[in-house]
Design brief:
The complex is a heterodimer of chains A (640) and B (335).
Chain A lengths: L18 H12 L4 H7 L3 H29 L10 H36 L7 H23 L24 H29 L12 H32 L13 H35 L6 H14 L15 H13 L1 H17 L6 H24 L1 H7 L3 H31 L5 H27 L16 H31 L29 E2 L14 E2 L8 E5 L6 E6 L6 H15 L5 H18 L13
Antiparallel strand pairs in A: 1-2, 3-4
Helix pairs in contact in A: 3-4, 3-5, 3-16, 4-5, 4-6, 4-8, 5-6, 5-17, 6-7, 7-8, 7-9, 8-11, 8-14, 9-11, 11-12, 12-14, 12-15, 14-15, 15-16, 17-18
Chain B lengths: L1 H10 L15 H41 L9 H39 L5 E8 L2 E6 L8 E4 L1 E5 L4 E7 L4 E3 L8 E3 L5 E5 L5 E6 L12 E7 L1 H12 L10 H9 L2 H4 L23 E2 L4 E2 L2 H9 L1 H4 L12 H12 L3
Parallel strand pairs in B: 1-5, 4-10
Antiparallel strand pairs in B: 1-2, 2-3, 5-8, 6-7, 9-10, 11-12
Chain lengths: 640, 335
């Protein structure tokens, strides 16, 4: 190892360099550049996380508008507010937007922002890859919505079953747009997953062993691994669909010895884990919130972590419960019934632990806790209907009816969006330096909680009473009218409550009370950083002694990182012993340029397969520029 | 609790609609219904217990809060022990309950398989965008009945439906009688039905199949074996060229576009890509449940199918008012 200068020549933090003096130097080193270019070139996880969050909330709004349109159409029998073509595009767009452009990215957003703060480091691993992933996500979402506005929105469902989505029954570009949007979002999700996995495994503060990681970080680690394992399946499926549609392969054509069920297997092998990819981060939010507001460590830390792992594993063994009606062999079904039922055991264990934490702690019922209570009351219903759906005979009756629509909205809204809204309220002071209004927060909680039940509970009954999903209209006299009307009216109240929540965010961002660093007296490292955090997060890297570091009288820190260059400390995977110092990339515009080149290639490949070959050239050039070594190699990855 | 209050009254048989899983009007539907009741009962009890547990925790927490404040950190291990035991008991109870439910599922599955083991009547149902082709099988070719968008079943015996698709995936679902079964191109599946009461029911495609998925219904009539026989024999009667008032309409049917897609038994019209119309006027609805059968509705449908069911595959055939009247008059004779 050759060193050009003796090591001590570098400026390092330590007892002699601390406080305001250190802040100034670190600020200079880590902040984004000025102006628009600074914004574009940013690789700061907080900037990227906030962009992700705002974009995801915009897509939530768009998806919500579509839901409102559907509820107008279905408020009574035989309405002509929307025609079948428009309605089919709208329900496809609603599902696609909510799953691919809201639910997964919003969890990514929270993780990108919070994980480095929670584990006490300055940035994520591969921050440029993170920046790239945001641009890809933005491009994919924009592609889908521009196409929809131009009446080229996909109309074969968010699941795009073949042969309906194949070349013969969906001519035109609509389904190509859908499949290519999936490619964009899976590139984005994989990039984030890789970055977060490496961040969590290698960048934890010294002393934060795996067993001292916050439960939210555990959830994100498991989810990231799940993304890495499940996304290739949908990538393969959608690539084969595009090949069938654009270059005449016959993967899914039964008349040429292809098989339409192949699509369903590949899609649900991704699609079912996807549900837990959305739910597990929410379980992490709940654990953090319960811990902070009860003033005690979450009961059964190890049990909850094991339950999360079990959920992550089982999630890959129950995709066939989406296919019980396809007529696969009965014996095989028994396995998937057992697996689907078994997944409710870890879920139940987590619920038990959270309630036990509340019981044995000293709960403060502030808005995030209300969301947690609302989550438990709602999610358990979704879990119980999930057990019903795991039973093949029952599933054969209620599959593809409004019963299932009710079930997964209970699980996804009750199970993931309620905790998310709680989490946003909880971490809002950290994000913005301001407190969210408690009063408005309570109103929006109660409104959403009650109107949610009014919207989705009747759907259970309507489904059992025989109403199938994905119908643009229904005849009168089936006994569905009143219940649908109740759903529609409640849906508008629900939409109003979400708007109120967002309004609370916007108002509080400007006029909210100034937030101290740790307004809730929470134990996590993220609350040690300033509110909002400085570009470098923590002035000194904290040393972690247990699961609740900020509740300790003793809060040691580590010294010795270079401060005039971007430098991080890497620790060992299991015990988080200091391992290496590593340089962290500087801001750059190349991720954006690479994303633009990729976007051009992806979109033009819808029109000609040659785009794949020709379009790879600019991507290659952009990547070469991105990775071009700048200056002499970093002199000291020194083992401490 | 809320669940129980809202759903349980609806479970009483007899008050269910013509397209309702609460109907339980066949052996299969009743078996599934009973299993559903078991699951619902368990779910209601489990939910009530969770809510009570949560409510107690919240109330306790509220009292606690008033007495003392401040951080607790990690509580003493001795305080945690009863909770750990509780957790183990809870997890074991959950596993046991689920095991019981899995056994109940398995028993129901077996009973369903037994109930459908022997079927004296075989019917092939083929899904098309957006209508149902129905063929009653018989070893004698001339005794095969072809119809569309309606299914007649004799009460008190098992009928096996063989399910196929001509284009995309559809799903056969007669909620009053049994669960659903997908119709997948290139595959064959089946569905056994043993209706236990007579009546008319509505079935609907349950897998999204494109533009008119919402208007792909099937009229199901369960009748006494004698009535079923009568209907069957009537369906076998061909409808040769009529004389008199209907002759003009017959000529239009044969000479304009109609006959190239539709078939009418006993005439040269033998199109196979659209519903067989030999006894169309004896059906309850038009265009897979899109309209009730009546003279006005037939005229409305034939004059502009795209206005009634946008996107369906029947073209608008330009007809003068008198031609339309004659054609409808002819169709009405196809009882």
């Amino acid at each position: 190892m050759s060193e050009e200068r003796p090591r001590d020549d570098y400026l390092r933090d330590g007892p002699n360099l601390t406080g305001a003096e250190l802040d100034a130097v670190l600020d200079e080193t880590w902040r984004d550049g000025p102006g628009l270019m600074g914004w574009i070139r940013s690789v700061d996880h907080k900037s990227i996380g906030k962009r992700y969050l705002v974009t995801a909330i915009v897509f939530l709004g768009l998806g919500g508008i579509l839901a409102a349109l559907m509820r107008i159409q279905l408020s009574g029998p035989g309405h002509h507010f929307l025609g079948p073509d428009r309605y089919n595009q709208i329900f496809t767009m609603h599902g696609t937007t909510m799953m691919f452009l809201f639910a997964v990215p919003v969890m990514d957003a929270m993780a990108i922002y919070l994980v480095p703060l929670m584990i006490g480091t300055r940035n994520t691993a591969f921050p440029r890859l993170n920046a790239f992933s945001y641009w890809m996500y933005l491009a994919g979402g924009t592609l889908l919505w521009v196409a929809f506005v131009l009446n080229v929105g996909p109309d074969a469902g968010w699941f795009s079953y073949v042969p309906l989505a194949g070349p013969e029954y969906s001519p035109g570009k609509r389904v190509d747009i859908w499949a290519q949007m999936v490619t964009f979002t899976e590139v984005a999700a994989l990039a984030v997953a890789v970055s977060l996995t490496a961040t969590i495994l290698k960048k934890r503060a010294p002393g934060m062993t795996l067993a001292r990681m916050p439960i939210f970080v555990w959830a994100i680690l498991i989810v990231s691994l799940m993304v890495i394992l499940s996304m290739p399946s949908v990538a393969l499926a959608s690539s084969m669909l595009l090949a069938d549609r654009l270059v005449g392969t016959q993967f899914y054509n039964s008349y040429e010895l292809g098989d339409p069920l192949l699509w369903q297997h590949l899609f649900w092998f991704f699609g079912h884990p996807e549900v837990y990819i959305i739910f597990l981060p929410a379980a992490g939010f709940v654990s953090e919130i319960v811990q902070a507001y009860t003033g005690r460590q979450t009961f059964g830390y190890t049990t909850i972590v094991l339950a999360l792992c079990a959920t992550g594993l089982l999630a890959f063994g129950l995709w066939v419960h989406h296919m019980f009606a396809t007529g696969l062999p009965r014996l095989g079904y028994a396995f998937y019934t057992a697996a689907s039922m078994a997944v409710s055991i870890p879920a139940g264990i987590q619920i038990f632990c959270w309630i036990a934490t509340i019981w044995t702690g000293r709960p403060r019922f502030m808005v995030p806790m209300l969301w947690v209570v609302g989550f438990i009351v709602t999610f358990v219903i979704g879990g119980l209907t999930g057990v019903m759906l795991a039973s093949v005979p029952i599933d054969l009756q209620v599959h593809d009816t409004y019963f299932v629509v009710a079930h997964f909205h209970y699980v996804l809204i009750g199970g993931a969006v309620f905790p998310l809204l709680g989490a946003i309220t909880y971490w809002f002071p950290k994000f913005t330096g301001r407190m969210m209004s408690e009063g408005l927060g309570k109103v929006s909680f109660w409104l959403s909680f009650l109107s949610f039940q009014g919207t989705f509970f009747p759907m259970h009954i309507v489904g059992i009473e025989g109403m199938p999903r994905r119908v643009y209209t229904y005849p009168a006299g089936m006994g569905w009218d009143t219940l649908n009307l109740i759903s529609s009216i409640s849906a508008f109240v629900f939409a109003g409550s979400v708007i109120l929540f967002v309004a609370n965010m916007l108002l509080s961002m400007r006029g909210g009370e100034q937030a101290p660093d740790n307004p809730w007296g929470a134990p996590g490292l993220e609350w040690k950083a300033a509110s909002p955090p400085r570009p470098y997060n923590h002035a000194h890297i904290p040393i972690v002694l247990d699961n609740t570091p900020l509740w300790n009288a003793e809060q040691p820190v580590a010294y010795g990182l270079r401060v005039e260059d971007r430098e991080l400390v890497l620790t060992t995977v299991l015990d988080a012993r200091p391992d290496l110092r590593e340089p962290s990339p500087e801001p750059t515009a190349w991720p954006l340029i690479a994303a633009l080149a990729t976007t051009v290639m992806f979109i033009s490949s819808i029109f000609t397969p040659w785009a794949v070959a020709i379009g790879s050239v600019p991507i290659g050039v952009a990547l070469i520029a991105w990775f071009w070594p700048k200056g002499p190699p970093h002199p000291d990855p020194v083992i401490e | 609790m809320k669940r129980a209050a809202l759903i349980l009254p609806l479970l009483a048989p007899g008050c269910a609609g013509i397209q309702s899983a609460n109907g339980r009007d066949a052996v299969q539907g009743a078996l599934i219904g009973r299993l559903f009741d078991v699951f619902l009962g368990v779910a209601v009890v489990v939910y009530a217990l969770v809510i009570v547990y949560l409510a107690l925790a919240l109330l306790r927490g509220r009292r606690h809060r008033r007495r003392e404040s401040g951080l607790q950190g990690e509580p003493a291990p001795s305080l945690e022990r009863p909770w750990r035991i509780g957790l183990i008991l809870f997890a074991s109870a959950t596993a046991l309950i689920l095991f019981g439910l899995a056994i109940a599922t398995w028993l129901t599955d077996r009973a369903l398989a037994k109930a459908g083991a022997e079927a004296p009547l075989e019917v092939e149902v083929i899904g098309n965008q957006w209508w149902w082709e129905v063929r009653y099988q018989d070893p004698v070719a001339s005794r095969i009945v072809r119809t569309a968008n309606e299914l007649h079943l004799p009460v008190g015996q098992t009928t096996r439906l063989t399910l196929k698709s001509n284009d995309v995936i559809h799903s056969m679902w007669i909620p009053n009688l049994s669960g659903k079964q997908d119709m997948i191109p290139g595959r064959e599946s089946d569905l056994a039905l043993h209706p236990t009461r007579t009546g008319t029911f509505r079935a609907q495609c349950a897998e999204f199949c494109g533009m008119q998925h919402a208007n792909m219904a099937l009229d199901v009539t369960v009748e006494s074996p004698a009535d079923f026989r009568r209907w069957y024999e009537a369906q076998l009667v061909p409808q040769p060229a009529p004389g008199g008032a209907a002759a003009a309409g017959y000529a239009i049917f044969q000479n304009r576009q109609c006959a190239s897609c539709h078939a009418v038994g006993g005439t040269p019209a033998s199109g196979q890509v659209a519903p067989d119309l030999t006894h169309v006027a004896s059906r309850n609805t038009i265009a897979a449940g899109a309209l009730p059968m009546s003279r006005e509705n037939l005229a409305r449908w034939v004059s502009d199918p795209q206005a009634v069911k946008p996107g369906n595959n029947m073209p608008k055939v330009p007809l003068s008012q008198s031609e339309l009247g004659a054609l409808v008059a002819y169709l009405e004779t196809l009882k």
